[in-house]
Amino acid sequence: MIDVGALRALRSVAALGTLARAAEELGFTASAISQQIKRLERQVGVPVLATAGRGVVLTPAGQAIVDSAPDVFDALERCVEAAQSVSDGAPRGVLRVAAFSTGIRGLLAPAIVRLSTECPDLQVRVTEQDPDHALHSVDAGTADFAVVHDADGLPPSLPSSLAERHIHTDVGDVVMNRTHALAQLDRPLTSADLAGHAWVTSPPGTVCHQWFRRLFADVGEDADVRHLVDDFATQLSLVSAGEVIALIPRLARPPLGKELVSRPLARAPRREIHAAWRRSADSSPAIRVVLQALDPATLGDGSGGRSG
């Protein structure tokens, strides 16, 4: 009988390329992962890994095992779901969630507050991960549920083993001091309105910086960027001084207080947010109740922390 832990270790090594990275993902030492792989080789009677430079590659036998692994894990998950279905079906145990930072604050945190009261036997454990990493974690079985966003309009690549559902559309607004000239405009702002004003924005490489650059794509001048700051709360502290304005996703926006106001954009940047989980866990009471808690009808305006 193949050891399930060893099978999971081989699958992670196959996905990540080294014993060290697999060990980090699974929460073991590299030595422990190596021992699990050796145990698997003893069980099947053939080598499953071969050295390749500083990493490792699957042997043909190892590849055959990894190709069959999803069926094994799906069957095991269905066993758990069957056991839960013959009980009262109440969500219980631990649900491991991987999500991006502003999704945690703006979507998951409010949902967890509700679930802690409505489902006292369910414990939701959240880990911050970027979308691609989060989807890999769910596919590999190191997380059960992911909250991910698209990247500049392109959805992350979803493994065939996962199901998904749209749960939110995040929109960017311009935030400014109440005394700022743009605060006096009682209409959606255009690119022409934004030209000539000083900004604090997220650093290059973030979704919000892409949003910001697109605002000026049809304006014949460079934006006046005074500050590059990753943390949205810090951005707002600079906006409070009145010198700069900021483009802030609604999920990332804490209460603005009395000094600050937000104005919508005529061509507002947006990103679509999805939940993802393994198809074999479709009937999980925990998955169902978290999806219900994240339903747009149950959520108000979100708020969040760093550039997500």
What does this structure look like?
This protein is about 40% helix and about 20% strand. With about 300 residues, it is an alpha/beta fold. Strands 3, 4, 5, 6, 9, 10 and 11 form a seven-stranded mixed β-sheet that branches. The protein has a two-stranded antiparallel ribbon with strand order 1-2. A hairpin with a 2-residue loop joins strand 1 and strand 2. The longest helix is centred in the first third of the chain and has 26 residues, at about 60-85. Residues about 300-308 have low confidence and may be disordered.
What's this, in brief?
With 308 residues, this protein is an alpha/beta fold.
What would the keywords be for this entry?
308 residues, alpha/beta, seven-stranded mixed beta sheet, two-stranded antiparallel ribbon, 11 strands, 39% helix, elongated
Q: What percent of the residues sit in helical stretches (DSSP H or I)?
A: 25-40%
Q: Given the helix and strand composition, which structural class is it?
A: alpha/beta
- Oligomerization: single chain
Proportion of residues in β-strands: 15-25%
The average pLDDT score comes to 86
Summarize the helix and strand pattern as letters. Answer: HHHEEHEHEHEEHEHEHEEEH
Q: Name the shape in a single word.
A: elongated
Question: Over all CA atoms, what is the radius of gyration?
Answer: 23 Å
> Alpha-carbon distance between the termini?
43 Å
Beta-strand segment tally = 11
Q: Unreliable segments (pLDDT under 50, ≥5 consecutive)?
A: 301-308
Largest pleated sheet: 7 strands, mixed
Number of helices: 10
